[in-house]
Amino acid sequence: MITGKGLPVFSGIAEGKIFYLRKHAFKTEQNLSLPDMESEKARFSAARKAADEQLSALFEKVRSEVGEQEAMIIDVQRMMLDDPDFNDAVISRLEAGSSAEQAVDRAGQQFAEFFGNMEDAYMQARSADILDAANRLLHILNGGTAADFQLTEPCIVAADDITPSETVQLDKSRVLGIVTRLGSSHSHAAILARTLGIPTLVQAKLPDGQPLDGRMMIVDGCDGQFYIDPDEQTFDRMRQKKLDAAGRRYGLEELRGMESVTADGKKIELYANIGSVDDVQIALANDAEGIGLFRSEFLFLGRTACPSEEEQFAAYREVLEAMGGRRVIIRTMDIGADKKADYLGFAPEENPALGFRGVRVSLDYTGLFKTQLRAICRAAAFGTAAVMFPMIISVDEVRRCREMLRQVLHELAEQGVLAGNVEVGIMIETPAAVMLSEELAYEVDFFSVGTNDLTQYTLAADRQNPKVEKLYDAAHPAVLKMLSLVAQSARGAGIWAGICGELAADTRFTETLLRMGYTELSVSPAYLLELRKTVRESTMDLISKGGETE
Ligand code: PEP
Ligand code: MG
Asked: Which helix (H) or strand (E) holds 18?
């Protein structure tokens, strides 16, 4: 038996076989000698053949399951791989001494840039196809296969690290637990694990130099411990622990269906954060009173092209209908930073968290933004919808977003397309938004504080970087002071304020947040009943006198 520690991200015990997500580092050596050059050429040729086989299979699958038109997207990639100019570009790099990975990577970038600079919008969009095709080749050259994300049975997923776009490709119904060597507890992959309620460890000291695939593992997300090839005694101990946890969970069941009111009678909205349509069932199973954050960008990840208006409309409508009239807050796509959609062809950035993400992308790619707003407004006819904009730093941005929304509603009305009205809110997740909250409050219907980003920007501590994990404290006095200021600004303008960052689930601070004036808390579904219990035990009397938001 091998035991080791990691940083727990979500509690609970999971046992199952390990599925190791294979990702290998690129070869970087230059100036290969002649025989190596020949072997690199052979590797490239084999990778092309394998990519072609994968794409043919995918083409057939998409054609039969989705449709001819969607399948053409796959065919375009096949054509790219056959393109003589692309192949010549790779070969000449191989002859100049590059490894196959370097040659494919550089040629892919060069062609993507070439297409990206074309006048014609259709040709520009092909830049993403080139990158996708090149990435497929790189994946194969690095030892990957099409089966890398295909879980054939329930298992514990282990990996060096998992990106958000990789997590969306996994069949979540088969993921029992997640253990990664890298990662931080505030990353989006960790947040996703919490949404799904899966025992998860990051920064785990997994053993090096031995195959892990297929071996039994127990993940103890309560103590941050894992066991590989556990002995009988450990199995018994962990099964008992699992039973005890289930017992505690059962104790919370009596809160199901109860109102979320403080001990002194103030109604609090307890909503769930979700990242996909499927998550809404988890939210309902945990008695969510609404959806406080639908991270719509997850609809854009792990695929080869943007979801169409119809696809988005269907997704938003399904969530709204499932919530049966309860409020659903859809956050417009917060693409960028760690949530990358390769097909958009954004250049790599030095400081992605401070870069091109959130509303910055939406206001630049207005076609994408309008498509999303149209889908949201159309879906709004089927429930109680609200839209909110991420990464706001100015009043001007909010006004531009609202103007776009107004235009979309006007166009839909002119076209006679059924649409509903939406409440409009913004996320407060930058210090700029906090400092301008007094002005911003008059521009919108509500605030929702994203403490995950607000913490990283306030404390200058990257939420993705394990080295500064200790500095990243969402309850740092500076962050709490900001939260208080935001609630005060909301109250001044007569709008409601909620919190959808992870701090909302930390019951040690529930009473403090309620006393500041927050009336909505949106958390990963698994925390809802526990939070309701805490809300019902809290009082608001000290600060709420004269501090009512309604
Ligand atoms: C936040 O920043 O707190 C937030 C809820 O948004 P995300 O975690 O998706 O960045
Ligand atoms: Mg955020």
From this structure: strand 13-20
Domain 2-21+149-251 has CATH 3.50.30.10: yes
Is 500 in the active site? yes
In sequence order, which residues have a C-beta less than 8 Å from that of residue 171 and are 6 or more positions away?
A: 150, 151
- Cβ(358) to ligand 1 under 6 A? no
d(CA 514, CA 507): 11
Write the DSSP symbol of residue 308: P
Residue nearest to atom 3 of ligand 1 (CA): 450
Q: Hey, which CATH number is domain 37-141, 3.40.50.2000, 1.10.274.10, 3.40.50.10420, 3.40.50.300?
A: 1.10.274.10
Catalytic annotation on 222? no
β-pairing verdict for 175-180 and 155-159:
parallel
Catalytic residue among 139, 188, 377, 401: 188
Closest CA to 228 of 237, 215, 238: 215
pLDDT truncated to tens, each residue of the chain (550 aa)?
999 999 999 888 999 999 998 754 444 444 555 558 888 899 999 989 888 887 887 777 667 755 676 667 677 778 888 889 999 999 999 988 888 888 888 888 888 788 878 877 667 667 767 877 887 888 788 776 555 667 778 999 999 888 777 777 777 888 999 999 998 888 877 887 888 888 999 999 999 888 898 999 999 998 999 999 999 999 999 999 989 888 888 889 899 999 999 999 999 999 999 999 999 999 999 999 999 999 999 999 877 788 999 999 999 999 999 999 999 999 999 998 788 887 888 888 989 999 999 999 999 999 999 999 999 999 999 999 999 999 999 999 999 999 999 999 999 999 999 999 999 999 999 999 999 999 999 999 999 999 999 999 999 999 989 899 999 999 999 999 999 999 999 999 999 999 999 999 999 999 999 999 999 999 999 999 999 999 999 998 755 444 444 3
**C-alpha to C-alpha distance for 329 and 292, rounded to whole angstroms:** 5
CATH of 257-426+502-536, one of 3.20.20.60, 3.40.640.10, 1.10.8.60, 3.30.750.24: 3.20.20.60
What are the domain boundaries of the chain? 2-21+149-251, 37-141, 257-426+502-536
Which of 125, 155, 126, 152 is closest to 17 using CA atoms?
155
Closest ligand 1 atom number to CA of residue 453: 2
State whether the beta carbon of 388 lies less than 6 angstroms from ligand 1: no
Q: Where are the alpha helices (DSSP H) in 172-308?
A: 188-196, 232-252, 279-285
CA atoms of 100 and 94, how far apart (whole Å):
7
Atom of ligand 1 nearest to the CA of 295: 9
Looking at the CA of 274, which ligand is closest? Answer: 1
Q: What is the pTM of this model?
A: 0.76
